[in-house]
Each structure stands twice: as structure tokens, then as C-alpha cells.
Amino acid sequence: MAATALKYKAVEAAVKGKPRRAVYEHPWAVRFAHWTTAVSLFVLIGSGLRIFLAFPSFGPKIPQFDLIHPPASLTLGGWLGGGLQWHFTFMWIFAGAGVLYLSYQLVTGHYKQVLFTPKDLPGVWPMARYYFLFGRKPEVTDAYNPLQKLAYTWSVFCGAASLLTGIVMYKPVQFAWLGFLLGGYHIARLWHFLAMCGLLAFIPGHLIMVALHGWNNFYSMLTGWKKDPEYLRAPGQAPPQ
Description:
Blueprint: H1 2-5, E1 9-15, E2 18-24, H2 28-54, H3 80-108, H4 111-114, H5 124-133, H6 146-170, H7 176-181, H8 185-212, H9 215-223, E3 225-227
Antiparallel strand pairs: 1-2, 2-3
Helix pairs in contact: 2-3, 3-6, 6-8
């Protein structure tokens, strides 16, 4: 436990005679990038669906109309031009937040807290068994368990894929070489759509995990501080009342 505590900035205080501990888990750069990305994704997905409706196909060998037809209420922009304006504006905000997030994680070494690394691999199955098969809960030794880290790393991968494929569609002539590497313009458009689907698959699981892990988890992404984190408690110790 002592080794784990050294990873984070922690403070202790006595509340009504009982010891309490708070840990600074999320620095300002991480919180700023998180909430900026959340808003950007909402706009990019809605406007992206509006753009897709203008040509609902991924190539000449696939049916050209109504391949996937999302309801207009789930789209943003009103028409193709409006969707493009929203999309091209918020793609820069999304890209900037992603660069800030990854740069901060890599420069400070904070990525070890939230991104998946080879040492997390043995812990994936025990957590999956706990969540999906009602197995025994593994001991919590870090801010995020291996399954959570895998999900967050997946979201980073999908975000990067959406940017790379989006560049091909934004500047198809200037980035023709990248389009060629991705299989051509139509295939890049398909990868772009699949990257969006990957992010859409991540969001419900992310919200469920936040709900399961309680208010402290959400509060920590607002202030940076988490009160009495489970990984700093002694085995079997209940949270303070």
C-alpha cells in the first residue's frame, strides 16, 4: 500500500475523529482534455451522421441509399453544409484536446495510471470474470483496474483513428498518400465510420463504470481529488461513514 500511495499526491485529515484520505488523481490537463473531448464528441458524432446522410454508402459496390439511416433528431447541422461547418470546427478542438492529453500523459508518466501497459495483461481476466460472471472481486491496487485501462486505451486508439481517417476526407488531395495507405478514399471513410462506432461502444460502458464506482469517481474528474480511494485502504477495510 505504501508503494501505491507514493504514485499520487495524497493528503490526510481527521473528520469527526476518523481519519480521511484524499488523493489528487486527475491533474488539470487531464480534466480539461476529458471534458473538452466529451463535448467535442457529442458535436462530431451528431454532425458526422448528418454528413453521412448526404451519401449513405462507403463505395460503389455497396448500395448507395439508406445503407444506414439515422433519425434526423440524432444529427446536427440541419443539412450537409451545416454539418460540415460543425464538424470542421470541432475536429480542431477534439484534436487539440487529444494532443494535450497524450502529451501530458507521456511527459509526466501519468499514462501508467490510466493507459493499458503489458503489466496489466494478467489482471484483465480476473476483472472481466468479476464484472460479467459474478466472480470474486480482485484486490484494488490502483486508481483504475486493468479492464478499465484497456477500455480507455481503446478510446484513445479510436480517437486517433478517427483523426487520421478524417484528415483523408478533409484534404483528400494533400493527403492522398495517407488515403492510399488506408486503402483508398472510400475505405478510409469506412474506417472513419467504424472509429465512431468504437467510440459509441465505449461511451455506455464508461458511464456504467462511473455509476458502479460511485460519486467519488465523478467528483474526482471535476476537482481532481478523490476521497478515500479504495486502493489505499487496508484489505477488507470498509469506507469511512
